[in-house]
Amino acid sequence: MPKASLISIAAYAPPKILTNFDLEKMVETNDEWIVKRTGISQRRIAQGEDTSELGTKAAKIALERANLAAKDVDAVICATISPDHFCMPSTACKIAKNLGINTITAFDISAACTGFIYLLELAKSLIESGNKKNVLIIGAEKLSKIVDWTDRTTCILFGDGAGAAVVSANEENEIIDVHTAADGNYANLLITPGGEEKFIKMSGNEVFKIAVQTLTKDVVDILEKNQISSDKIDLFIPHQANLRIIEAVKQRLNFTNEQCVVTVGKYGNTSSASIPMAMNDAYEAGKLKKGDLLLLDAFGGGFTWGSALLKFGGETANNF
């Protein structure tokens, strides 16, 4: 059976920066309050770019870093909760078109902030089944279009961006294990109702408590299943939703500051794009190297959650 390896990582962040001080002029809030409760200082906002365009820009870099041409890709899968269109065409179809590949598998998934973990599981399965050789996975979000900019409890949290990766058949540096799960009983705690209520609604305190408990258990489970201790992890890359959640999980699992990748301060919560964007930051900073053992985890609306253990199969970055 062929093995699946993540052989490249890339990201794209829109150039416009919206700081907490900018938000002070829009809603009743202030920088100190936002930083204390979330760890977020700024976020990126897409202007004149659709979700598919953000994803395309990240995808092109991911292909270049994988030393692949677009024609080498067998499937394009995009995770998003802010697609270009209400139900069709899929964002993945538009990304594939932008890349000039028009006769391959292309579809979207909706798993909120856990989207990238779900993508890894799908790509791993497609590769290991022998059906595909190179799968392009993309987490892309333009959350600014589904955020109520008059709601100070949610508008401070979210940003726009995209992350992309190539998963290929490769005997070295495999994706070791992926866990995904969901529980729809908590759907109303984090929801985009639809219709006239098209904006994100969240019960913050309840989500926080369940997220910390669930993420901690899921990480413990995947480490125990694979008989790996936390000190063997080179980089712990969690979903970047809230610094308090990241710190709580990190402390319960005894990860050091050096192991933990944190980018929430400069990007905010970019949902399905958050983990690949954080991974890309570590890669471009020279902290993520070929063969490094990574632990990813995420929790999002649905509720959905998941974790992944993998060795990075991409070439170590040159200085950017």
UniProtKB/TrEMBL annotation:
UniProt entry keywords in alphabetical sequence: Acyltransferase, Cytoplasm, Fatty acid biosynthesis, Fatty acid metabolism, Lipid biosynthesis, Lipid metabolism, Multifunctional enzyme, Transferase
Q: What is its EC number?
A: 2.3.1.180
Q: Where in the cell is the protein located?
A: Cytoplasm
Main location group: cytoplasm
Q: Which Gene3D superfamilies has this protein been placed in?
A: 3.40.47.10
> Where would one find coiled-coil regions in this protein?
none
A Gene Ontology annotation in the biological process aspect, one of them, is: secondary metabolite biosynthetic process
> Its catalytic activity?
malonyl-[ACP] + acetyl-CoA + H(+) = 3-oxobutanoyl-[ACP] + CO2 + CoA
Domain Beta-ketoacyl-[acyl-carrier-protein] synthase III N-terminal per the UniProt entry, residue ranges: 107-184
- Which terms does the record give in the GO molecular function aspect? 3-oxoacyl-[acyl-carrier-protein] synthase activity; beta-ketoacyl-acyl-carrier-protein synthase III activity
- Record-annotated active site: C113, H239, N269
Q: Which domain of life is it from?
A: Bacteria
Query: Where is the stretch described as ACP-binding?
Result: 240-244
**Similarity remark:** Belongs to the thiolase-like superfamily. FabH family.
Query: Regarding domains, what does the record say?
Result: The last Arg residue of the ACP-binding site is essential for the weak association between ACP/AcpP and FabH.
What is annotated about its quaternary structure and interactions?
Answer: Homodimer.
Question: What's the protein here called?
Answer: Beta-ketoacyl-[acyl-carrier-protein] synthase III
**Source species of the chain:** Campylobacter showae RM3277
